[in-house]
Amino acid sequence: MEASEFEAFFRSMFPKLVRYAQRRVDPEQAEDLAATALQTIWVKNLPSCRDEVEERQLQSLAYRVVDGLSRNAWRKDRASRGLVEKLSGHAATAVPDVADEVSGESWPEWATPLSLTDREVLDLLVDGYRVAEIAVILGCTPAAVTMRLQRAKKNARRLWMREVTRHEEERSGDRR
Questions:
Q1: What is the CA radius of gyration of the chain?
Q2: Distances in Å between the alpha carbon of 35 and those of 38, 41, 59, 66, 141?
Q3: Residue 59: exposed, middle, or buried by beta-carbon count in 10 A (0-12, 13-18, 19+)?
C-alpha cells in the first residue's frame, strides 16, 4: 500500500478504532491501541485496495487487530497480577472475566444466558453503530448483521419475558 493511501486509511479509521477500543480498555489506552493496530497493518505492507470489498476487508482487519491487542493487554495485566500475588503472598484484587471485559458490565443478571455473539451485536447497536458499521467491525455482510440482531433481540426478549413472569409469580405469591 502506498504511503498516501495508508495515510488516508489512517485518517479515516483512527477515530473509529479509538471509539471501538474505548469499549475494551481505558480511554487513555484507546488511542495507543488504535495507533498500534494501524501500525501493525502498515508493517504488513498489504497491497492497495482495488475495490470497495477489499477496503471493507481491510477495515475489518483493523477492528480484529484492535480485538487481539486488547485481549493481549488483558492477558498481560492478568499475568502480572498473578505474579504480584505469588511474590507478595497476598491475593490480588479480583480480575474481571474476559467475557465481562469484552461485553461490558451493563448487562443485567437475567441476560447472563445470552451468548457473547448476541451481547456483542447488541452492544454495538446500543453504542450507536449502524448495521453497515457493525458489518465492517464483525467482518460480515449487513444481511448477516441484520439476522444476528434479529436472533439476539429474540433471545433477549425471551429471557426478559421469563424474568417478568418470575417477578409476577413472586408478587402473586407475596399477596397470598
A1: 20
A2: 5, 10, 14, 9, 26
A3: buried
Give the pLDDT confidence score for residue 13 in this predicted structure: 92
Write down the number of H helices and E strands in the chain. 7, 0
Q: For residue 10, give the amino acid letter.
A: F
For residue 106, the model assigns a pLDDT of 64
Rounded distance between C-alpha atoms, residue 70 and residue 21, angstroms: 8
Query: Average pLDDT for consecutive 10-residue bins of the chain (176 residues)?
Result: 88 92 84 90 84 88 88 80 74 46 61 87 88 90 94 91 87 72
Torsion angle, CA of 67/60/12/127, rounded to 10 degrees? -60
